[in-house]
TrEMBL record:
Name the UniProt record assigns to this protein: HTH cro/C1-type domain-containing protein
The keyword DNA-binding is assigned to this record: yes
Keywords of the record: DNA-binding
Pfam (any one): HTH_3
One GO MF term: DNA binding
Presence of keyword Flavoprotein: no
Superkingdom as given in the UniProt entry: Bacteria
Length: 132
């Protein structure tokens, strides 16, 4: 799912939960501190709410922030595998990996590809230098 599709999905969910709560766009906007045309833009997927706004919206609509996003398709075995992989890492090492993931998620597609390419290069270089 690309960014535009995600924005439309989230917008549709905002609209759905707003209506379930019997709120107008203006009422929701007043509760979260934006104008009704901003709520309209969120619902159309024309703009995406910032992280703090997503939390405000979920709070007002009395839902989990996860309710605004598509369900993830990760299986339990993938999650268990990830946990096992981190078993021997220190907290500092896990935090570093988390920072790498968060950084890559904050980038646009082109920036992310360049960032990941530089990491691939580093891994390949390390492997070549340590072939013993």
């Amino acid at each position: 799912m690309n960014k535009k599709e995600l924005a439309k999905f989230v917008g549709g969910r905002i609209k759905e939960y707003r209506k379930r709560n019997k709120l107008t766009q203006k009422e929701l906007g007043e509760k979260i501190g934006v104008r009704d045309n901003t709520v309209s833009a969120y619902e159309r997927g024309a703009i995406s709410p910032e992280q703090d706004m997503l939390f405000a919206i979920s709070d007002v609509l009395d839902i989990s922030i996860n309710d605004l996003f598509p369900e993830k398709k990760h299986t339990t075995s993938e999650f268990e595998r990830a946990l096992k992989m981190t078993k021997n890492l220190s907290a500092e090492e896990m935090e570093f990996l988390n920072q790498l993931i968060e950084k890559s998620l904050s980038m646009n597609d082109e920036e992310r590809e360049n960032f990941l390419e530089s990491i691939r290069f580093t891994v390949e270089y390390y492997e070549r230098m340590n072939k013993n």
